[in-house]
């Protein structure tokens, strides 16, 4: 494991990528459109993934509160996903953490709203049938 962190493979040769190629291959093959994966495409996809993760982490660190603590936190990442237009597509994957009690309250309010909408829809349908 220490070799991977240092950027060396088991033989001591420098590695092109740090992420495990076998895991990236499994993720790529999980798509039904993919039947086979060229080794070069696998390495390029892995390197692009590493660069993206590095950019996301650096951006989140610079624009987050972690700079004061010299640490990158989950909240820094979720704030970046929510506030940055570039990373907006990650908002569902990196949601802001909320307390369970707040979540349950939000669910209850949503159910109440849905019930009110259903009640008003039922009432208007009945009026149209009488006309």
From TrEMBL:
One Pfam family, short name: CBFD_NFYB_HMF
Biased composition (Acidic residues): 112-131
GO molecular function, one term: nucleotidyltransferase activity
SUPFAM superfamilies to which the protein is assigned, alphabetical: Histone-fold
Location(s) in or outside the cell: Nucleus
Protein keywords: Acetylation, Coiled coil, DNA-binding, Nucleotidyltransferase, Nucleus, Phosphoprotein, Transferase
Residue ranges annotated for the Transcription factor CBF/NF-Y/archaeal histone domain, each copy included: 18-78
Segments passing through the bilayer: none
Major location (coarse): nucleus
Self-association and partners: Heterodimer with POLE3; binds to DNA. Component of the CHRAC ISWI chromatin remodeling complex at least composed of SMARCA5/SNF2H, BAZ1A/ACF1, CHRAC1 and POLE3; the complex preferentially binds DNA through the CHRAC1-POLE3 heterodimer and possesses ATP-dependent nucleosome-remodeling activity. Within the complex, the heterodimer with POLE3 interacts with SMARCA5/SNF2H; the interaction is direct and enhances nucleosome sliding activity by the SMARCA5/SNF2H and BAZ1A/ACF1 interaction. Within the complex, the heterodimer with POLE3 interacts with BAZ1A/ACF1; the interactions are direct.
Protein name listed in UniProt: Chromatin accessibility complex protein 1
Organism: Ailuropoda melanoleuca (Giant panda)
Lineage: Eukaryota, Metazoa, Chordata, Craniata, Vertebrata
Gene assigned in the entry: CHRAC1
């Amino acid at each position: 494991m220490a070799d991977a962190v240092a950027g060396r493979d088991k033989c001591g040769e420098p590695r092109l990528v740090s992420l495990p190629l076998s895991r990236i291959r499994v993720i790529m093959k999980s798509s039904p459109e993919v039947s086979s994966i060229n080794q070069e495409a696998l390495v390029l996809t892995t390197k692009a993934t590493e660069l993206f993760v590095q950019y996301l982490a650096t951006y989140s660190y610079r624009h987050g509160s972690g700079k004061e603590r010299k640490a990158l936190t989950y909240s820094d990442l979720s704030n970046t996903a929510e506030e940055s237009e570039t990373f907006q597509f990650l908002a569902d994957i990196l949601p802001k953490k909320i307390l369970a009690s707040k979540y349950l309250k939000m669910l209850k309010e949503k159910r109440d709203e849905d019930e009110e909408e259903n009640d008003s829809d039922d009432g208007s349908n009945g009026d149209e049938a009488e006309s």
